[in-house]
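This part of the workshop introduces the protein records we will be handling. A record pairs a protein's sequence with a compact description of its fold. As an example, a complete record with its sequence and its structure tokens follows.

_____
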Amino acid sequence: MLGYLIRRILAAVPVMGVVALFVFLLLRLTPGDPAAILAGDNATPEQLDRIRTSLGLNEPIYIQFYTWIAKLLHGDLGVSLISNKPILEMIGPRLEPSISVALATIVLSILVAVPLGVIAAWKHGTWIDRCVMGLSVLGFSVPVFVIGYVLIQVFAIDLRWVPVQGFKSISAGFGPFFERIILPTCTLSFIYVALIARMTRASMLDVLGEDFVRTARAKGIGETGVLLRHALRNAAVPVITVIGSGFALLISGVVVTESVFNLPGIGRLTVDAVLARDYPVIQAMILLTSGIYVAVNLLIDLAYTLLDPRIRY
């Protein structure tokens, strides 16, 4: 297991290197001048040249890349061109809302979707199966912002059970934290419950027809034991893949949900940086997102080996 983990980590290093090179070249070679954005429309050529010199934009591309990588390896993501703040200070406060919503959404989706998928496969062809698949289609079909506005109207405006928008850190107390995270969590869970339930059902249907399931039933093992201990474990590999990919997507920021519920997450930070052409922030956010995807894929691969020992690097 240790050797497998080391090989997977070493395989991720060149991936992140290629991502870093691509991000650097993509942003530096796109039209637009960061110095002009900072100085404004009325800037003189001397002012623009002074800003380019201070930012190192007059240096050759390879020197700029070397300087950027050297700072990155020392934990320095740079300074925002617009706010003139260190990027780490900008990202730090925005991680908690994004991570909180992502974790809550994935946990709720797993608790609801996996049992629904198992039951739908067990009762294949019955009205239960049709109801679960109907809910899955509904979850895929309705846009996220529509679900969010409906939940706000019902639970925040009509019933006044929870606040409409905003975010409270868990350090302010679990009650305020829960009140502000429950609606965005339920909004995002509609899609992920539909996705995970559908994948669980499909995987379970494939496994339930295998010989080892019939052998387990012939040995007198109860239906619950057959479904959970034998079928679900062998059907879990594609389900784990969907769960991991969904978690990485949530962490990187679901902009629509963050906008609807006024959550100060990293998704909105990325969009604001793109609109302002804030190159250092865009670079940092793309690298952060890529790192999250690589880390999640590594965890998924490790989960594969735990669920199915036959899977190796």
